[in-house]
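hey
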């Protein structure tokens, strides 16, 4: 039992920080979408909402991923560097696809 506790102890702050951050970002997106859809618009198209919300959600997820990678208790720092590098390549591909 002591071996498992010693192994899992560094991960306790990881789950607290990432879980609360994910919940806050999810709630923030619900608030933003609710405020945007409540405004009177001349045209009743959903294109503006999806155009606005999709990149914002992608950037929120990217920030959450970087935070999760950097707060995780890694034994070697090469792994977070590789993961963040792969995320940046994905973000550049997404940016190129959206433009």
């Amino acid at each position: 039992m002591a071996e498992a506790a010693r192994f899992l102890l560094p991960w306790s702050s990881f789950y607290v920080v990432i879980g609360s951050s994910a919940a806050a970002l999810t709630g923030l997106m619900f608030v933003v979408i609710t405020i945007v859809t409540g405004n009177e618009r001349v045209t009743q198209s959903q294109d503006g909402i999806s155009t606005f919300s999709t990149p914002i959600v992608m950037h929120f997820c990217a920030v959450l991923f970087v935070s999760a990678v950097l707060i995780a208790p890694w034994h070697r720092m090469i792994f977070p560097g590789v993961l963040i590098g792969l995320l940046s390549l994905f973000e550049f591909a997404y940016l190129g696809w959206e433009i």
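Residues 2-38 form the longest helix (37 residues). The helical segments are 2-38, 47-71, 78-98.
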